[in-house]
């Protein structure tokens, strides 16, 4: 069963009944579907993505913060609390859900045509169809404006050529949202546009990234687009430019800033439990002042990050959250979570490095979470620009 922490600030009292209900339901789902299997999935480097997606779809978790097309119409805070509980199971499981909802469904929902929405969203909400989001390339990570994937006009559509790298769900997806440069017909300039590419299209191939030491319970792919022909109707009609993919990242980051705290809570709860039962020098580790200091500092850090997450989630729901606020939350949550996972590991000593406890797995996963969706440094620079007015990227 999911271990939780004592709610010393009584933050639960500030949640609505619906928020608590969604949290509890997701926690039970993780207890049933994830916890019994996750150590094995992680060791084997695999995840039964389709099976989980079907069950998550049935529970209304896929695209839950969107409305219509079979989506649950939940708030950003409800989505965040669900991400937190999923990531208490494993970051890879949360990734499966956040990529599907925020990075694959959201661009279709926000930028797509009515036909595109009708074709893809109901099946994706149900977990019958999986999506992925192809922005990053081998030579274009933090700087997506430097992408080289190209969409060239043909008589009746576009031909896509390029390589996308590190694409979550890439090997299991039915549809890939591919961001590529094409020539704008009016200005003659290169612009970034989004394309919906069914993964069975000739010329599309995906292969699993081998030998990951982090986020092992997640499908991560290199996608090669070699002369992939798509019709005119594959283009996302309602967005042009980098603000398209970056707008999707706001959605995903707003979930991840809650999610990372789930992994941290699970690691900390594990350390707390271990400290009360492990005897050294004739008493439980929990009786030593240094252990208590670690537990107190971690609990304080966790609660401050959780309060920031709730504040940002409520701002998203009110329509007042800026991308900079979301960057601050993503930066603070992921760094706090990684610190907590590492310090929790020290409390478990040698046992902490094994797969018998979730702590090392969370710490290893959080290295990825610190890196994807904008690295810590990128979020520092976004905040630096907001504070100083100087653009370090330019
Ligand atoms: P810049 O010139 O600042 O902006 C270009 C255009 O984009 C607009 N914009 C945004 N729009 C919406 N939301 C945001 N957060 C936005 N940030 C910028 C901006 O207004 C402008 O629009 P327009 O219409 O005026 O042209 O762009 P830049 O090239 O200087 O880059 C800025 C930078 C570095 C912050 C950005 O490129 C960035 O965030 N880089 C990080 C890349 C990243 O996060 N990649 C993530 C890939 S997906 C992933 O990791 C999934 S992980 C799996 C999982 O989630 O589980
Ligand atoms: P780089 O951009 O090469 O950065 C390397 C280092 O340099 C970092 O520390 C970075 O912060 C630093 N750096 C870069 N620029 C600057 C600067 N201007 N100033 C100071 N420091 C700088 N992408 C997708 O599109 N879709 C996905 O589904 C997806 N899933 C992922 C899943 C996993 C498991 C992983 C690991 C990544 C995934 N990504 C995905 C890619 C992810 O978004 C990128 O890894 C991330 O954006 C960083 O790019 P990079 O790895 O190329 O690092």
UniProtKB/TrEMBL annotation:
Keyword list, A-Z: FAD, Flavoprotein, Oxidoreductase, Transit peptide
Cofactor entry: FAD
Residue stretches making up the Acyl-CoA oxidase/dehydrogenase middle domain: 132-227
Record domain Acyl-CoA dehydrogenase/oxidase C-terminal: where: 241-387
Broad enzyme group: oxidoreductase
EC code(s) of this entry: 1.3.8.6
Catalytic activity: glutaryl-CoA + oxidized [electron-transfer flavoprotein] + 2 H(+) = (2E)-butenoyl-CoA + reduced [electron-transfer flavoprotein] + CO2
Superkingdom, natural source: Bacteria
An annotated Gene Ontology molecular function: flavin adenine dinucleotide binding
Keyword Repeat among record annotations: no
Pathway the protein takes part in: Amino-acid metabolism; tryptophan metabolism; Amino-acid metabolism; lysine degradation
Gene Ontology BP, a term: fatty acid beta-oxidation using acyl-CoA dehydrogenase
All residue ranges annotated as the Acyl-CoA dehydrogenase/oxidase N-terminal domain in the record: 16-128
PANTHER family on file: GLUTARYL-COA DEHYDROGENASE, MITOCHONDRIAL
Recorded family membership: Belongs to the acyl-CoA dehydrogenase family.
Annotated protein name in UniProt: glutaryl-CoA dehydrogenase (ETF)
Organism: Nakamurella panacisegetis
Taxonomic path: Bacteria, Bacillati, Actinomycetota, Actinomycetes, Nakamurellales
């Amino acid at each position: 069963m999911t271990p939780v922490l004592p709610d010393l600030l009584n933050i639960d009292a500030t949640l609505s009944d619906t928020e608590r209900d969604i949290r509890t339901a997701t926690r039970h789902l993780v207890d049933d579907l994830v916890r019994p299997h996750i150590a094995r999935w992680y060791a084997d480097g695999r995840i039964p993505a389709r099976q989980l997606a079907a069950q998550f779809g049935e529970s209304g978790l896929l695209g839950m913060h969107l409305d219509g097309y079979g989506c649950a119409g939940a708030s950003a805070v409800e989505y965040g609390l669900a991400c937190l509980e999923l990531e208490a199971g494993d970051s890879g499981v949360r990734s499966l859900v956040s990529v599907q909802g925020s990075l694959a469904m959201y661009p279709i929902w926000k930028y797509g045509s009515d036909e595109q929405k009708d074709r893809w969203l109901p099946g994706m909400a149900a977990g019958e169809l999986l999506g992925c989001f192809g922005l990053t390339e081998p030579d274009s990570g933090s700087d997506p404006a430097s992408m080289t994937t190209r969409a060239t006009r043909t008589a009746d559509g576009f031909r896509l050529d390029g390589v996308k790298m590190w694409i979550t769900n890439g090997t299991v997806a039915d549809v890939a949202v591919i961001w590529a440069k094409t020539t704008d017909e009016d200005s003659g300039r290169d612009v970034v546009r989004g394309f919906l590419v069914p993964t069975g299209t000739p010329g599309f191939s995906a292969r699993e990234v081998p030998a990951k030491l982090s986020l092992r319970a997640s499908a991560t792919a290199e996608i090669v687009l070699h002369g992939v022909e798509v019709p005119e109707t594959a283009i996302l009609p309602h967005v042009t430019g980098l603000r398209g993919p970056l707008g999707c990242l706001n959605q995903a980051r707003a979930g991840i800033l809650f999610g990372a705290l789930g992994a941290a809570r699970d690691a900390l709860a594990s350390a707390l439990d271990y400290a009360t039962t492990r005897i050294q020098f004739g008493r439980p580790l929990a009786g030593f002042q240094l252990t208590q200091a670690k537990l107190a500092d971690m609990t304080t850090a966790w609660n401050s990050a959780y309060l920031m997450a709730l504040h940002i989630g409520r701002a998203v729901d009110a329509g007042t959250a800026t991308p900079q606020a979301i960057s601050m939350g993503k930066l603070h949550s992921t760094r706090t979570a990684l610190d907590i996972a590492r310090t929790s590991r020290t409390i478990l000593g040698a046992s902490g490095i094994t797969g018998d406890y979730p702590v090392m797995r969370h710490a290893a996963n959080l290295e990825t979470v610190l890196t994807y969706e904008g690295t810590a440094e990128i979020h520092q620079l976004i905040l630096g620009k907001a504070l100083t007015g100087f653009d370090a990227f330019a």
